[in-house]
Amino acid sequence: MLNKPKKVWNPSNWASWKPFGLGKQYPNNYWELLRAIWENKDQLPYAWDILNQGVCDGCALGTTGMKDWTVEGLHLCNVRLRLLRLNTMAAFDPANLADISQLRAKNSRELKEMGRLPVPMRRDKGDKGFRPISWEEALDCIASHIRATMPDRTSYYLTSRGTVNETYYVTQKAVRAMGTNNIDNAARICHSPSTTGLKSSLGVAATTCSYKDWIGTDLLIFIGSNVANNQPVTVKYLHWAKKAGTRIVMINSYREPGMERYWVPSIPESALFGTKFAEDCFLVNVGGDMAFLNGTLKHLLENNWVDNNFIDNNTTGFENLKNTINSQSWEKLEQLSGSTKEQMYEFAIMIKDAQKAVFVWSMGITQHPWGEDNVRAIINLALTKGFVGREGCGLMPIRGHSGVQGGAEMGCYATAFPGGKEINSENADYLSQVWGFDVPTSKGLITSEMIDAAAENKLDVLFSVGGNFLDVLPDPNYVKNALKQVPLRVHMDILCSPQMLLEPQKTVILLPAMTRYEIPGGVTETNTERRVIFSPEIPGPRIENARCEWEVFLDLARRVKPEIPDQLFFNNTTEIRQEIAQLIPNYAGIQHLKEAGDQFQYGGSHLCFGWHFPTEDKKAKFTALLPPETQLPDGYFVVTTRRGKQFNSMIQERKDAITGAMREAILMSSIDAEKLGLKDGDRVLLKNESGEYEGTVYTAAILPGNLQIHWPEGNILLDKKARSPVAGIPNYNGIVQLEKIP
After folding, report:
1. What does the pLDDT read at residue 559?
2. What's the CA gap between 158 and 141, in Å, rounded?
3. Which residues sit opposite 463 in a β-bridge?
4. What is the rounded CA–CA span in Å between residue 109 and residue 433?
5. What is the pLDDT of residue 3?
6. In percent, how much of the chain has pLDDT > 70?
7. C-alpha pair distances (Å), 639 with each of 326, 663, 716, 732
């Protein structure tokens, strides 16, 4: 049994004795609520219905209305409040895009404020801007371009913010009917290494536990993850975890203030005095996580602080792991991690003493060229004590988008069919029989490869649903030039984005999309803990010409493949869910979700429960790993990208309310700043072979030799060619020189 939270107030957990944290740097959650009310004042009843009835379209916690299945009470975070206006705003006047010369200087936030996309629009080469067109003209134009080229010279991409399972499933089916597996989604550039690492080690490709396991477990470990910023509702879970006696640990390249303490507005004790979360923090170099985890393992192995019974009966590869760990010297592990033997010992003691533990990680772990092995290093550590498949234990790659978990599971992936099935002839033949048309057998282009193909004039059609490649991918100048070489670009979205305004090589078409709350019949999303949740259609104002993406892709596919119209048709989302249930075993039950609050958790509360692993030999696999050796010449720094007051690439404020850092801040160790004669506010230049970035010094709790800058502004310093070997995730880190600007 997990320890239960104690409801009595406990001053030892308080962040400050000052009421409401006066003078402290943290978000003013009450102001955010007032701001949302003011921003949505023209549609307050509709906004309220979205918050009260819909499944959150922010991060992947999956609150339904303002409640969830983890703790009681109302759950409403700043992320959701900031996203609310995207669902309630009216459409802008199409004349706004008639001449886009004045819009090119606007950033994503300024373009968003214009309003929703009103109608299908078209811009041809030489045009000053866009002109409204009918849906018939738009789809006929797109279909003619697709028919005029080879299927593999077309590509399709879906964002994951607000995108639902029904859209993912139907879109990938339509794209494969049109003859290609060149379809990918935003999971590729966030947690694809997590899927790969978990699948190879445990035989599963998703979070193994539930959010409830956070509260009352012995040890809750966050590695390269900042949930206070990216999944704010979780601070409520952290508060109750502390009240249950859970020890919270942070392993990161920066001592994130929001992970150390937070004022949870809906809990009186925390709202008044705040809550201390991670009182144990281990700082590591950017890219030094694996070395730190291996050092911890080395202590555990040397002292035999492992569960030998679990290891002998339920795992393979342990002896190979031991030999590899033994070959790694303390000197090398300290050098690579930036930590010390003593600190690794301190963490190893925590692992030894814990009977239960949950490991949570995010993009600080995955967005490296060795992202898959970073994930396997966490799994190795968890397996030494059997911290999987039982209550209070688990491995959780926490998701930052409401739609991202379902994307790959629905098959909206260049490297997997629905249900995560491998792309090969056997699986393609099976799908061909089920769907009634030939399914391609070779893997498609992943997201980064689509841009490479565009740059090499190997792409004739690029269809993007949401997203903004200019912001999310490394080397934005390269991305911009690549996009401008695609003969037909199609952007389906609810808002105008900068990539839409790039000069057409031949034609650019914009298509207005519905939000998830507007889709007739309701839809579903899958959250981080594998909970499939129904989100109903919510009556309210509508954009007359907006359509739901799944209908558009079927309409398009029927034009491209008129010989198979019956195979490319659904009457409603209910029929889509019925087919999903038949084709994807984990989603059996989705066909019964019909009303607000309907949900189920596929796989139950714990995957691999009772240590039954769905691998070929029914055992979990240890992986022998050598930490990566990043060469850092004298005078150089390793820089990583971070999030501020934003959601994904949508920047909401110049100042981060949690850290106090401005968007142009370059987070730096005070030791490095003193050595270079720098102080807070000094202008500096970061440069490497990819680009140059100007910013201001912001001293922070970060190890010497490491820097952090905000994403996506810092993407100009990232190497577009650096990707992980299996998942193909881009490297969102770089090596730079630093110069002071006079």
Report:
1. 98
2. 20
3. 156, 490
4. 46
5. 92
6. 100
7. 30, 15, 12, 9
Torsions phi, psi for 685 (to 5 deg): -120, 125
Instruction: Name the CATH superfamily for 208-398.
Output: Dimethylsulfoxide Reductase, domain 2 (3.40.228.10)
Q: Where in the chain is the domain with CATH 3.40.50.740?
A: 117-189+402-601
The full length of the chain comes to 742
Residue ranges, comma separated, of all CATH 3.40.228.10 domains in the chain are 208-398
| Residue recorded with tokens 């060149």 | 182
123-133: b or e for each residue (b if 16 or more CB lie within 10 Å)? beeebebbbbb
* Residue 140 burial by Cβ neighbours in a 10 Å radius (0-12, 13-18, 19+): middle
- Nearest-10 crossing angle of helices 549-560, 135-147: 50
Crossing angle of helices 318-326 and 289-302, rounded to 10°: 100
- Neighbouring residues of 634: CB distance < 8 A, sequence distance ≥ 6: none
CATH number 2.40.40.20 is the correct assignment for the domain at 636-740: yes
State both tokens at 393. 């234990």
Amino acid identity of residue 460, one-letter, is D
Domain 117-189+402-601 has CATH 3.40.50.740: yes
Q: Is the pLDDT of residue 587 over 80?
A: yes
pLDDT band at 173 (very low <50, low <70, confident <90, very high): very high
The first and second tokens of residue 236, run together, are 């409520």
Q: Is the pLDDT of residue 530 over 80?
A: yes
Sign of CA dihedral 144, 145, 151, 155: negative
End-to-end CA distance of the chain: 61
* Nearest Cα to Cα of residue 175 among 152, 159, 141: 152
Q: Model-level pTM? A: 0.97
- Start and end residues for every CATH 2.40.40.20 domain found in the chain: 636-740
Rounded distance between C-alpha atoms, residue 165 and residue 63, angstroms: 16
The CA distance from 445 to 180, in Å, is: 9
Distance CA 8, CA 184 (A): 49
**Measured distance CA(704)–CA(695) in Å, rounded:** 18
Checking if the pLDDT of 480 tops 80, the result is yes
Contacts of 308 (CB under 8 A, 6+ apart): none
Distance CA 583, CA 191 (A): 24
3-state SS, one letter per residue, for 403-441: CHHHHHHCCCECCECHHHCECCHHHHHHHHHHHCCCCCC
Average pLDDT, the chain: 95
Residue with tokens 């303490």: 261
Bond into 712 cis (ω within 30): yes
pLDDT digits (tens, 9 = 90+) for 665-716: 999 999 999 999 999 999 999 999 999 999 999 999 999 999 999 999 999 9
- As given in the structure block, the two tokens for residue 207 are 């979070």
- DSSP of 594-605: -STT-EEETT-S
Region of residue 440 (phi > 0: left; psi between -120 and 50: alpha; otherwise: beta) = beta
Cα separation, 91 vs 445, whole angstroms: 34
